[in-house]
Amino acid sequence: MIDWTGYDTLVLGFGTLVITVLLAYSGIRASLRLQEEHLKNELKVRLYPEIADALHRTAEALQAAALGYEVTVGDLKRRTETGTGGSQRTSEELADRHRDAARQVTALLMVFEKYEIVFARFAGIRRQFADEHLRLLTAHSTLFSRLLLFLPSVQGTVLPHQPRLQDVAELEVLAKAYRDVEGDLQGYILDASVEAQNELLGDLFKRQLPSRNPLDSSVKVLKRDYTPQRTREPGRW
């Protein structure tokens, strides 16, 4: 009769070795996954301040530009109605504020583009900001070309032309159009801030911030794409 004791021991030992190796391999894979998630979270945490700063600078620049035009048109209106006072801002100062606002919007888009692999679900948000940037430029071109007739180019000089009431009324409409674009962009900046926090910090803190909920239901709210965009739209970026 054949003695299988040695063979059984060999098989048992080999099985134990295989199980040990598989457990060790599984543990290594789990450890690598944890390290990978840790590195991803560390990258996102480091990235968020750059995004937040770009959003903040864009919001401030837009507000300064729109407010400058709003106050200037108001000054011209009072001068026209009362014959006293007048704009204390020059055309160059207002143009500089607008240029800074436009540059900040461009810089914000470039930040999202720079980290596109992280913000793969932000294609729709970037597209909306690009469209609003074009609206801002168009609104400014119309407003500035009309307002330029009534603004000094250098501080302290007299106004080139005295506006009439109908001129002021037209300028108020154009300034409101510029302010409307600025207001839309301010809302979209809030949306982008929420979505950036959810994208970069949501997994780390195990929660998601709610989207903006404006009282006017017709107001557009930006959200991340449901799935990452896999191809670029022709001519868009």
Labels describing this entry:
Four Helix Bundle (Hemerythrin (Met), subunit A), 0% strand, 4 helices, 237 residues, mainly alpha
Short description:
This protein is an all-alpha fold. It has 4 helices and no strands. The protein has helices spanning 5-82, 91-114, 123-147, 165-205.
Q: Would you give an account of this structure?
A:
The chain is mostly helical. It has a domain at 48-205: Four Helix Bundle (Hemerythrin (Met), subunit A). Helix content is 71%, strand content 0%. The chain has four helices and no strands. The chain has helices spanning 5-82, 91-114, 123-147, 165-205. Helix 1 (5-82) packs antiparallel against helix 4 (165-205).
List the helices and strands and how they pair.
Layout: H1 5-82, H2 91-114, H3 123-147, H4 165-205
Low-confidence stretches: none
What quaternary form is this?
A: single chain
Radius of gyration using CA atoms only: 30 Å
Beta-strand share of residues: under 5%
Report the strand count. Answer: 0
Number of helices in the DSSP assignment: 4
What general outline do the C-alpha atoms trace?
A: elongated
Strand/helix succession: HHHH
- CATH fold naming of the domain at 48-205: Four Helix Bundle (Hemerythrin (Met), subunit A)
Mean pLDDT across residues = 84
| Percentage of residues in helical conformation | over 70%
Named at the architecture level, the CATH assignment of the domain at 48-205 is Up-down Bundle
CATH class descriptor of the domain at 48-205: Mainly Alpha
Biggest β-sheet description: none
How far from one another are the termini? Answer: 81 Å
What structural class is derived from the secondary structure elements? mainly alpha
